[in-house]
Fold this sequence. Notes:
Number of strands: 0
Structural class: mainly alpha
Distance between the termini: 46 Å
Oligomer: single chain
Helix content: over 70%
Largest sheet: none
Radius of gyration: 20 Å
Amino acid sequence: MPQYCDLFVAPLLDVIVAWALYTVFTPVNRNRSLLAAWFRVVYAGMLMVAISHLVRALAVLEGPQSLAVSSPAQLNAQVLLELNTSEAIWSAGLVLFSFHLLLLGYLAYRQRTSQDIWGPSSSLPDSAI
């Protein structure tokens, strides 16, 4: 299944983004910045597991022995199990990602130089956006 390897790039990029955001917000509050980074890293791990279940569902359908060994009802049940497992893991990961975003919002609010980072758009009135 090498054609599905590119699906696993996004979680690896999430780890890089977690590290970058940690270094940006460490001057504001080191412990909360570290906590936000860990939430994102754990989310990335859960995303990898969820993606692996999607790939397994595809493998069940594309396998050469799939129809020879199992009935269509058994294949459907196995694929549905993999899809439901992936969705449950993905949903739990999104809860962790929301905590990451809440912490990032707090850190951005507390940062004195947020005007320099976010640019002049943060000083525009709401009616101008």
